[in-house]
Design a protein that fits this description.
The chain is an alpha/beta fold. It contains 16 helices and nine strands.
């Protein structure tokens, strides 16, 4: 019996009967005079040997080309990638799909010699969890866009910018630079003095070399806010930001519905990061966000010039056109 299971010709015939002639497994059993378990093993072997190739095609993808072009034109984007999601998908499935598409897009975007700035947060961390292999011989340099966020309690996941840079270099190849600094200071004056120190000033020289920046887009929420959980702001301060019209943040910089940073200067000017004016000059500014609740923040980030490439899901994309 073992010989039948290992016979490539028999495996091919079994697969042909099942997939091409639509024979049932019971009919194949009668045809060969073998057991159903043997037929199942031969069908499995057909896939493992490459005799049978199964491709699952999402029919929704065919409609996204027009939608991507429409959003691209309306918001004057360089590029946009939309992934499938619906009410039946759980959040983890959507994030996995988004992360897979983002990883492939970024690998194609990166070129030898590129300097790539990375923000912080779970969105970028999730990309580094994808089980895909890329060319590790690329000459890439990953630079944190923000000083290290206090670890505090973030479910023990290290989502600060230094760690993201390290994980991206492991995934896509190349090296990374560390930015040994807190994420923010208690005053603008202390921050300005800190930036003059030779031990950290090197990082700001890298920012002028950036070819690409990659960021998540945050929204003002209390329960899941990394800023609140790490003690940078409290619920009362968040209420003040909301009263001032905050709709989102990128690289720990808050902005309003028009993408303006000015109403939040008191906070933004204390963040240790690339300047937003310099970031807006970077050629590729990639924002990654999903969910209808992120649409307003994404729209405002585009208005502010913080991103010109968007990777999102259909729920957020449809909201952008409302």
């Amino acid at each position: 019996m073992r010989k039948i299971v290992d016979d490539v010709k028999m495996i091919y015939k079994c697969c042909s009967l099942y997939y091409e002639e639509n024979k049932s497994q019971n009919e194949i059993c009668d045809y060969f005079g073998i057991s159903r378990s043997t037929v199942s093993r031969m069908l499995k072997s057909g896939i493992e040997l490459g005799i049978v190739k199964i491709e699952v095609i999402n029919p929704m993808n065919y409609s996204y080309g027009n939608l991507e072009e429409e959003i691209k034109k309306r918001y004057n984007l360089k590029d946009i990638i939309i992934v499938h999601s619906d009410v039946l998908d759980n959040k983890d499935d959507v994030l996995t799909c988004l992360s897979e598409k983002a990883s492939i897009f970024l690998d194609n975007l990166f070129c030898n010699g590129d300097y790539i700035g990375v923000s912080m947060g779970r969105t970028l961390y999730n990309i580094t969890k994808i089980k895909k292999e890329f060319d590790e011989n690329k000459d890439l340099t990953f630079i944190p866009l923000i000083g290290g966020v206090n670890q505090g309690q973030t479910n023990k996941i290290d989502i600060q910018s230094n760690q993201i840079a390290a994980r991206f270099s492991q995934m896509f190849g190349g090296k990374y630079v560390q930015f040994l600094s807190p994420a923010m200071f208690s005053s603008k004056e202390i921050l300005n003095a800190f930036r003059m120190e030779k031990s950290v000033s090197y990082i700001f020289d890298y920012y002028s070399k950036l070819n690409t920046v990659i960021m998540g887009v945050g929204i003002p929420e209390r329960e899941k806010s990394t800023l609140i959980s790490n003690g940078y702001i409290d619920n009362e301060y968040m209420d003040k930001l909301i009263d001032k019209g905050v709709v989102g943040d990128v690289a720990l910089h808050f902005f309003d519905k028009n993408g303006n940073l000015e109403p939040f200067e008191e906070f933004n000017d204390r963040v240790v990061s690339i300047s937003m004016d310099l970031m807006k000059k970077v050629n590729n500014r990639v924002a990654i966000a999903s969910g209808a609740e992120k649409a307003q923040a994404v729209k405002s980030a585009i208005y502010g010039g913080f991103c010109n490439i968007l990777i999102t899901d259909i729920a957020c994309a449809e909201k952008l056109l409302e």
